[in-house]
Amino acid sequence: MSGEPSASRFPGGSSNRASSEGSRAAFLLTRATGRCGVKVIILLAVMLPTAALGVAVSVLLSERYQIAGQASSIARRIPALTGIVSLHALIDQERIQTETRLREAELGGSTITSITGALGLGGGTVAGARAAVDSQLQSNDAQVPASFERGLTALRGEVDRGRADARQVDEGYARLSDELTGAVESRLLGLRHLTSRTSNAEALDASLATLQEANAVLSAGSNEVGTLSDVYLDREPQRRIDLGALSVQVPLFNTASAQLLSAGSAGVRSAFAELADSDAWRSYQAAAAAAVAGNAPSLRAKALAGESFGNLLGDGSLLQVVGPLLSGWTGMQKVYRVVKLAAGDARTEAATLQASGNSAYRNLVLEAILGVGLTIGVALMLARLIARPLRRLEAHARAISSGNLELPPLPPSGPKETVVASRAFNDLVANLRLLEAKARTLAACTFDDPILAEALPGRLGQALEQSITVLSGSIVEREQLQKRLAHEATHDSLTGLHNRAAAVEYLDQALARAGRSGRALAVMFVDLDDFKRANDIYGHAVGDVILASIAERISSVARRTDFVARLGGDEFVVISEGLDDAQEVVAIASRLVATLSEPVDADAMIISVTASVGIAYALDGAADEGSQLLARADMALYRAKRSDHSSVEIYDEALREELIRHAEVEKDLIAALDADGSGLFVEYQPVIDTATGEFSSVEALIRWDRPGHGRCQPDAFIPVAEASDLIVQLDKWVLGTALAQQRTWIEAGHGSIPVAVNISGRHLLTGRLVEHVATLLESSGADPAGITLELTETVLLTDLPSVALDLERLRKLGVRIAIDDFGTGYTSLAHLQHLTVDAVKIDRSFTSQLPAERDRRLVQLVTDVGHQLGLSVVAEGVENEDQLAELRDIGCDRLQGFLISRPFGPDQIAAWQASRKDARARRAS
Fold first, then answer.
1. 470 and 556 share a domain?
2. Counting beta carbons within 10 angstroms of the beta carbon of residue 543, is it exposed (0 to 12), middle (13 to 18) or buried (19 or more)?
3. pTM for this one?
4. Which domain holds residue 798?
5. What spatial distance separates the first Cα and last Cα of the chain, rounded to whole Å?
6. 3-state DSSP assignment of residue 177
7. Residue 569: inside a domain, yes or no?
8. What is d(CA 90, CA 82) in angstroms, rounded to the nearest whole number?
9. Quick one: which H or E segment has residue 664?
10. Inside any domain, residue 10
């Protein structure tokens, strides 16, 4: 067919054709340059691309022509759709007339004749309806499926011979109607498939989509109206079956109608909306909904019971039927017109697309003719300007190629490029003899030949002399450079060990070998525990000495066949192959820990560091890849660094389960914070003045009622939060809650109660703590003087200059700073001089041993140092009267612990204060 697309119109086809033509043009141009004059060459250089352009234009013209042809083909097919839609309407009319006559025979003429007359259907005849259908069939005979005509003929024969009742006729015509609907749908699918392969056919495709949606409305509506009439006129139990069918068809019609109203074209939507908004159609829809709900009258039952037309009209039964059915069948006639309108839109769009294609085709032809003519004219003019000087260059080139170097100089004439070329030819003739001799000498690699010392004029001579000097030493230097680069790519420059890239590559190879041999493989991940502190205190130069010494020790402890590498920083790895016993690796790791823990002599300074080792096994090479095994060893190392009992840990099922529990806790904690702290709450532990016993302040302590697990201890989720920035969100939530509680206490008449809040070291080291505290203070309106931020001692020394600056900025906000767990870290008197803090809290590990003499002296020392520096001293963990007496005697300023009070909810502060006053009063009496 003329409208079908050919292979050349697809992107691949046109591109391949253009590429093939371009390649052929390039081949012809190459051959022509050796045989033709400059004019011909220039013309060829222009004409061949012009020809290629013409090919591309012809392809485009073909596409435009095919677009117009396809649009014409679509336009020719659309009338067939309109004819089938018209036939659909006429079949429904024949169905109504035929079923009406059969209903009259079944129910008695008086009742059903009155109903059909009221419907406006009594004037028609079955013969007239059949004649209209036959006339439409003759005009569209080739477009209607043969099965439809056979089915229609058979059904009419059954009716004429009296072998079909009204119900059978209704079902037969419904099947014929569905077949017409399917025929429309099939043709629409074919047309839409054609438009999908046609360029610039979006509007046409949209109109076809609208026609498809309108056809769906027509099919669903026709079935719905027919089924509603059956509900009114059928006997039981068929009537119940009709009601079930109607309950399915009503939603189908509503869905199809909604789709047409939302996605159809503007004109079709407007026409269908006018029908949908009419009172008659709404009345019909209400009747259909009432029938689905079980509220439809059965005229057949009443007519068989002998009720007359007058009685049916009097009790309203007839009106309940006549009005909706009349509105339904009348509305369906309007739906037919909507479908025809959609078909007309599609035909109009096809004509528009065809006209657009024809216009584009004509314009492209004119543009191509003008472009080719202009190109040829410019080519001829350029050929005349360049031809003469190029002919002179050609003559000299022929002479040089024949060996004739005794040539007169070329005159510098013509375009700038030919002038430069002429001068280059003059220099070339003068230097060719010497250049040939030098080239022969270089080819023989006789760099000491005297001829090489003769200078060539110009830049070419300078470049040749330089090349001789470079070539003489380049071979040896290249070999040395290749060796050095290969070593640097796989080794660490500081320690001389292999680097991370080499370790990962070796590990993958070792896993493959282990898989073949069936023997175990182990990875030992080694990390120095105190290296960062030593590096910060003594400087990076000393740190480099420590790392070099550690590398030597690891190499000395590892087996001769083990692979040792530095992954970066203070992290090392040892890969052991061919293991028969797991204890062998544990023994190597233990020796590593012992050896690396020995003091290092770095620039006359004795520095102690410790090490932790994580071990991961691969049995029979059973690991996905080397990076996975390294990750497992790293996880075991993490547990070893957290352990108080062992510096060597092995990745096992327990560690995997621990990591899973860690992830579950983290997930639940994130969910709690995302839910505005759901399940999280704060308890408060009082702090008293040592001398007077008066209430001084409270410490805010976070608690968690974890869903599905109950109350969760802080040590079960705080470390999980500490492992990520989740702890920052947790700190902000606790501080915000404490500030809000302060305001609640003030409003309740308890006064301004100072609150201490623990702040994570990770939060401090992010550099955002000052900003967060300032924001929370501003939003809460709290008095900064009533807030104390407690920071652990070890964190303060991680980055002393930066931490000291942040502490000073926090104190400028007005808050107080306390060092928590004082005495458990590495804080010295010199450090305290540089840290602007207000208080120190003596760790419970010291107070719990009182009144032991050694611990008493330590607590006394810390208290005296704190007072000398003007700091307030708070003792934690006070749990019995002996500890209380000792701390009073030592001179601690404030006390905190279970003896004073366990943590309690914020609403219990008043009760605790009252009980505290009563207890003091009883002791005083």
1. no
2. buried
3. 0.42
4. 681-701+732-924
5. 118
6. helix
7. yes
8. 12
9. helix 653-674
10. no
Q: Which residue has the tokens 């028969």?
A: 580
Q: CA-based diameter of the chain, in Å?
A: 138
Taking the C-alpha atoms of residue 113 and residue 103, their distance in angstroms, rounded to an integer, is 9
> Do 477 and 603 fall within a single domain?
no
CA angle 79, 83, 85 (to 5 degrees): 115
CA–CA distance, 778 with 782 (Å, rounded to integer): 7
Q: Is residue 509 part of a domain?
A: yes
Q: Which residue has the tokens 């003489």?
A: 472
Question: Would 390 be classed as within a structural domain?
Answer: no
The CATH number of whichever domain residue 596 belongs to comes to: 3.30.70.270
Question: For helices 458-490 and 416-443, what crossing angle results, to 10°?
Answer: 60
Whether residue 481 is found in the same domain as residue 496: no
The pLDDT value recorded for residue 11 is 38
β-pair partners for 756: 699, 788
> Using an 8 Å Cβ cutoff, are 818 and 791 in contact?
yes
H or E segment and range at residue 677: none
Cβ atoms 387, 235 nearer than 8 A: no
By CB atoms closer than 10 A (0-12, 13-18, 19+), residue 923 is exposed
Rounded mean pLDDT of 648-652? 81
Distance CA 353, CA 65 (A): 11
Tell whether omega for the bond before 851 is within 30 degrees of 0, i.e. cis.
yes
Query: Residue 721 class from Cβ within 10 Å (0-12 exposed, 13-18 middle, 19+ buried)?
Result: buried
Tokens of 820: 């928590």
Mark which of 486, 506, 541 sits at the end of a domain.
486
Q: Which residue has the tokens 């040749």?
A: 464
User: For position 42, what pLDDT does the model report?
Assistant: 62
Residues 526 and 623 in one domain: yes
pLDDT, residue 107, reads 64
Using CB atoms within 10 Å of the CB of residue 681, give its burial: 0 to 12 exposed, 13 to 18 middle, 19+ buried: middle
How many domains is the chain partitioned into structurally? 4
Model confidence pLDDT, tens digit, residues 343-378: 788 778 877 877 777 777 777 778 777 877 777 777
